[in-house]
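Researcher: We plan to redesign the surface later, but first we want a full-length starting point. Tokens attached.
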């Protein structure tokens, strides 16, 4: 029985053509700055996002944390969304690695209220308060359902940030999803930000890596921080070749992931005992739950855990937390896989 793995778009495996590109890659020593394929990837992503330079790093967490260290000094703070990856899913790295506090602001769609941002900008006049140095966004926003953050909101917050000398960073792990879903060029989405991270190992399907882009000066300093964080690698061309292949072949096809996600979400919403807010399904993430009045929900946490286990027995893998369930579409799951997942889910819920 084949497995339909919808836990995350990080589970994608290199296609045969991507593996061939990796095998044929020209390599050097990236720490010495002479890996030609790594250099090509960094320049390619920088141009794609409208920035001067790029830096290949092992993970999105490292890309974000290098940006935090670039823009914020120990004892200072950054304003972030309450559900963002930097705040919730990076192991407290901002505090542990850089001595930086994060001030979370909440919203339903990943946006930040410019007025609330302004109220939370702290200067150096009051010694009780950490000085604010940066505002960070995440686009698409995972916790909020894979939503595309409205560009008008980002521009409004950027105006506040610029007026107060604050840096802007974008966790663009799924930025190409946002670009495809909104029909907006990635460079335009990245324009308001000083630094942007782009993950290659989610929907784009590469096995490893992210690229951090920004000004030449910022990336020169970022290279030193990458070394400090243990991210200096050697013959990265083998990995960079996968990223280049993904940019050439796996961007436009993100539309198919979004289409399949909405089809899956619609089927979930129509399944007795399940609930799903279709308005939030904008890209490749589908968050849903067991209906509050369903008999399974007498013990909610156990109900979700049991449902995940039952689906796993039938070859369908989902992710779940204490409050909801998640399915993520990606290039390793085709239309037939989605139909099978729907059939299994409906069968299990009908028991």
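Model: Full-length starting sequence:
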């Amino acid at each position: 029985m084949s497995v339909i793995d919808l836990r995350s778009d990080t589970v994608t495996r290199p296609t045969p053509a991507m593996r061939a590109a990796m095998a044929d890659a020209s390599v050097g020593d990236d720490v010495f700055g002479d890996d030609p394929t790594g250099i090509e990837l960094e320049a390619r992503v920088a141009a794609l996002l409208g920035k001067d330079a790029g830096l290949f790093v092992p993970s999105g967490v490292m890309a974000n944390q290098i940006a935090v260290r670039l823009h914020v000094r120990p004892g200072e703070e950054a304003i972030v969304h309450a559900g963002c990856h930097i705040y919730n899913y990076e192991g407290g790295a901002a505090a542990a690695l850089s001595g930086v506090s994060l001030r979370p602001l909440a919203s339903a769609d990943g946006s930040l209220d410019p007025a609330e941002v302004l109220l939370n900008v702290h200067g150096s006049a009051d010694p009780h308060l950490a000085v604010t140095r940066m505002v960070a966004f995440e686009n698409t926003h995972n916790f909020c359902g894979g939503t595309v953050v409205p560009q008008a909101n980002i521009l409004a917050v950027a105006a506040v940030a610029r007026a107060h000398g604050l840096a802007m960073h974008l966790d663009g792990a799924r930025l190409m999803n946002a670009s495809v879903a909104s029909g907006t060029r990635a460079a335009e989405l990245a324009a308001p930000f000083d630094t942007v991270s782009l993950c290659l190992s989610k929907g784009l399907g590469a096995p490893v890596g992210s690229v951090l882009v920004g000004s030449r000066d910022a990336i020169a300093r970022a290279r030193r921080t990458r070394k400090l964080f243990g991210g200096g690698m050697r013959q990265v061309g083998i990995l960079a070749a996968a990223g280049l292949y993904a940019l050439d072949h796996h961007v436009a096809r993100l539309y198919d992931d979004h289409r399949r996600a909405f089809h899956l979400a619609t089927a979930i919403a129509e399944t007795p005992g399940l609930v799903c807010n279709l308005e939030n399904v904008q890209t490749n993430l589908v968050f849903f739950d067991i209906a509050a009045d369903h008999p399974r929900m007498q013990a909610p946490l156990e109900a979700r855990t049991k449902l995940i286990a039952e689906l796993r027995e039938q070859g369908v893998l989902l992710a779940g937390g204490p409050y909801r369930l998640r399915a993520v579409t990606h290039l390793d799951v085709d239309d037939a896989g989605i139909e099978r997942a729907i059939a299994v889910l409906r069968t299990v819920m009908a028991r």
